[in-house]
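ok so I'm stuck.
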Amino acid sequence: MTAVAQEQEEIRGQVQEVAKVAATLDPGRGDSATRWKRFKRLQKRLGSSSDPVRMQMAVVMAAFAVGLFAGGGLKGLPLDNLDLERWFRLPKGHERRINGRRHAGVRLVQEGATLMPVLDAHRERGAFTAEELLGYRAAKPPDDEQEAVKRRKVMRKARSKKKRPILLATLEQRYFDRC
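replied:
not stuck anymore, here's the structure
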Protein backbone atom coordinates (compact mmCIF):
# COMPACT_ATOMS: atom_id res chain seq x y z
CA MET A 1 0.00 0.00 0.00
CA THR A 2 2.80 2.41 0.78
CA ALA A 3 4.34 1.82 -2.67
CA VAL A 4 1.24 3.19 -4.43
CA ALA A 5 0.08 5.69 -1.80
CA GLN A 6 1.39 8.71 -3.73
CA GLU A 7 -0.29 7.55 -6.98
CA GLN A 8 -3.57 6.95 -5.15
CA GLU A 9 -3.42 10.47 -3.72
CA GLU A 10 -2.93 11.91 -7.24
CA ILE A 11 -5.87 9.87 -8.53
CA ARG A 12 -8.07 11.08 -5.65
CA GLY A 13 -7.26 14.66 -6.64
CA GLN A 14 -8.12 13.93 -10.26
CA VAL A 15 -11.41 12.33 -9.23
CA GLN A 16 -12.24 15.49 -7.27
CA GLU A 17 -11.58 17.55 -10.41
CA VAL A 18 -13.91 15.31 -12.43
CA ALA A 19 -16.57 15.74 -9.73
CA LYS A 20 -16.20 19.53 -10.02
CA VAL A 21 -16.67 19.30 -13.80
CA ALA A 22 -19.75 17.12 -13.30
CA ALA A 23 -21.15 19.67 -10.84
CA THR A 24 -20.98 22.38 -13.51
CA LEU A 25 -23.10 20.20 -15.80
CA ASP A 26 -25.81 19.45 -13.22
CA PRO A 27 -28.87 21.66 -13.92
CA GLY A 28 -29.85 21.40 -10.26
CA ARG A 29 -26.81 23.50 -9.29
CA GLY A 30 -27.80 26.82 -10.76
CA ASP A 31 -28.82 28.42 -14.00
CA SER A 32 -27.05 27.77 -17.28
CA ALA A 33 -25.10 31.05 -17.37
CA THR A 34 -23.66 30.56 -13.88
CA ARG A 35 -22.69 26.96 -14.58
CA TRP A 36 -21.10 28.05 -17.90
CA LYS A 37 -18.91 30.59 -16.08
CA ARG A 38 -17.85 27.96 -13.52
CA PHE A 39 -17.12 25.52 -16.35
CA LYS A 40 -14.91 28.05 -18.19
CA ARG A 41 -13.04 29.00 -14.97
CA LEU A 42 -12.44 25.34 -14.20
CA GLN A 43 -11.28 24.66 -17.75
CA LYS A 44 -8.84 27.58 -17.59
CA ARG A 45 -7.44 26.42 -14.24
CA LEU A 46 -7.02 22.83 -15.44
CA GLY A 47 -5.37 24.02 -18.65
CA SER A 48 -2.75 26.02 -16.75
CA SER A 49 -1.88 23.05 -14.51
CA SER A 50 1.45 21.27 -14.87
CA ASP A 51 -0.23 17.86 -14.45
CA PRO A 52 -0.68 16.25 -17.91
CA VAL A 53 -3.92 14.53 -16.83
CA ARG A 54 -5.49 17.83 -15.75
CA MET A 55 -4.28 19.47 -18.97
CA GLN A 56 -5.97 16.68 -20.95
CA MET A 57 -9.16 17.27 -18.96
CA ALA A 58 -9.06 20.90 -20.11
CA VAL A 59 -8.60 19.81 -23.73
CA VAL A 60 -11.60 17.48 -23.51
CA MET A 61 -13.67 20.19 -21.82
CA ALA A 62 -12.82 22.60 -24.66
CA ALA A 63 -13.90 20.04 -27.24
CA PHE A 64 -17.26 19.44 -25.57
CA ALA A 65 -17.96 23.02 -24.45
CA VAL A 66 -19.80 24.01 -27.63
CA GLY A 67 -22.75 21.66 -27.15
CA LEU A 68 -22.91 21.30 -23.37
CA PHE A 69 -24.80 24.48 -22.58
CA ALA A 70 -26.58 24.84 -25.94
CA GLY A 71 -30.05 24.42 -24.44
CA GLY A 72 -29.67 27.38 -22.10
CA GLY A 73 -32.35 27.33 -19.45
CA LEU A 74 -34.84 25.23 -21.43
CA LYS A 75 -36.46 22.50 -19.42
CA GLY A 76 -37.34 19.02 -20.65
CA LEU A 77 -34.34 18.62 -22.96
CA PRO A 78 -32.13 15.54 -22.65
CA LEU A 79 -29.20 16.29 -20.34
CA ASP A 80 -26.61 14.15 -22.09
CA ASN A 81 -26.20 11.51 -24.79
CA LEU A 82 -27.35 8.74 -22.47
CA ASP A 83 -30.52 10.67 -21.66
CA LEU A 84 -31.06 11.23 -25.38
CA GLU A 85 -30.66 7.49 -26.03
CA ARG A 86 -33.18 6.71 -23.28
CA TRP A 87 -35.62 9.15 -24.90
CA PHE A 88 -35.29 7.39 -28.27
CA ARG A 89 -35.29 3.85 -26.88
CA LEU A 90 -39.07 3.44 -26.73
CA PRO A 91 -39.88 4.36 -30.35
CA LYS A 92 -36.84 2.53 -31.72
CA GLY A 93 -37.77 -0.57 -29.76
CA HIS A 94 -41.35 -0.22 -30.97
CA GLU A 95 -40.15 -0.09 -34.61
CA ARG A 96 -37.95 -3.13 -34.14
CA ARG A 97 -40.72 -5.17 -32.56
CA ILE A 98 -43.10 -4.32 -35.39
CA ASN A 99 -40.67 -4.71 -38.27
CA GLY A 100 -38.13 -7.22 -37.04
CA ARG A 101 -34.59 -6.02 -37.65
CA ARG A 102 -35.51 -2.81 -39.39
CA HIS A 103 -33.37 0.19 -38.58
CA ALA A 104 -35.68 2.92 -37.27
CA GLY A 105 -33.29 5.87 -37.40
CA VAL A 106 -34.19 7.37 -40.80
CA ARG A 107 -37.89 6.92 -40.23
CA LEU A 108 -37.68 8.69 -36.88
CA VAL A 109 -35.90 11.63 -38.50
CA GLN A 110 -38.36 12.01 -41.38
CA GLU A 111 -41.59 11.01 -39.67
CA GLY A 112 -40.61 11.76 -36.09
CA ALA A 113 -42.72 14.89 -35.69
CA THR A 114 -45.90 12.84 -35.85
CA LEU A 115 -44.53 9.41 -34.95
CA MET A 116 -42.91 10.25 -31.59
CA PRO A 117 -46.05 11.59 -29.86
CA VAL A 118 -48.04 8.61 -31.10
CA LEU A 119 -45.51 6.05 -29.88
CA ASP A 120 -45.15 7.83 -26.54
CA ALA A 121 -48.88 8.36 -25.95
CA HIS A 122 -49.45 5.09 -24.12
CA ARG A 123 -46.66 5.87 -21.63
CA GLU A 124 -48.46 8.93 -20.32
CA ARG A 125 -51.98 7.62 -20.41
CA GLY A 126 -52.17 3.85 -20.80
CA ALA A 127 -53.94 1.80 -23.44
CA PHE A 128 -56.46 3.43 -25.77
CA THR A 129 -59.86 1.98 -26.58
CA ALA A 130 -61.15 1.53 -30.13
CA GLU A 131 -63.74 4.26 -29.60
CA GLU A 132 -61.06 6.76 -28.60
CA LEU A 133 -59.01 6.01 -31.71
CA LEU A 134 -61.97 6.06 -34.12
CA GLY A 135 -61.77 9.83 -34.65
CA TYR A 136 -58.20 9.60 -35.92
CA ARG A 137 -58.77 6.98 -38.64
CA ALA A 138 -58.74 9.58 -41.46
CA ALA A 139 -55.80 11.57 -40.05
CA LYS A 140 -52.97 12.28 -42.48
CA PRO A 141 -49.39 13.35 -41.84
CA PRO A 142 -48.45 16.96 -42.64
CA ASP A 143 -47.53 17.83 -46.25
CA ASP A 144 -43.84 18.33 -45.53
CA GLU A 145 -43.63 14.89 -43.94
CA GLN A 146 -45.36 13.29 -46.94
CA GLU A 147 -42.91 15.08 -49.26
CA ALA A 148 -39.97 13.78 -47.21
CA VAL A 149 -41.29 10.22 -47.55
CA LYS A 150 -41.67 10.68 -51.34
CA ARG A 151 -38.10 12.03 -51.58
CA ARG A 152 -36.86 9.04 -49.61
CA LYS A 153 -38.58 6.66 -52.05
CA VAL A 154 -37.05 8.45 -55.05
CA MET A 155 -33.58 8.36 -53.49
CA ARG A 156 -33.91 4.65 -52.75
CA LYS A 157 -34.75 4.04 -56.40
CA ALA A 158 -31.81 6.23 -57.45
CA ARG A 159 -29.43 4.10 -55.36
CA SER A 160 -30.70 0.85 -56.89
CA LYS A 161 -28.85 -0.28 -60.04
CA LYS A 162 -31.96 -2.06 -61.30
CA LYS A 163 -34.47 0.72 -60.65
CA ARG A 164 -32.28 3.70 -61.60
CA PRO A 165 -32.91 3.50 -65.40
CA ILE A 166 -36.67 3.25 -64.84
CA LEU A 167 -36.56 6.22 -62.46
CA LEU A 168 -34.54 8.30 -64.93
CA ALA A 169 -36.97 7.46 -67.74
CA THR A 170 -39.93 8.42 -65.54
CA LEU A 171 -38.32 11.71 -64.51
CA GLU A 172 -37.39 12.47 -68.12
CA GLN A 173 -40.94 11.79 -69.28
CA ARG A 174 -42.32 13.99 -66.51
CA TYR A 175 -39.97 16.78 -67.63
CA PHE A 176 -41.05 16.48 -71.30
CA ASP A 177 -44.72 16.47 -70.28
CA ARG A 178 -44.26 19.80 -68.48
CA CYS A 179 -42.61 21.45 -71.49
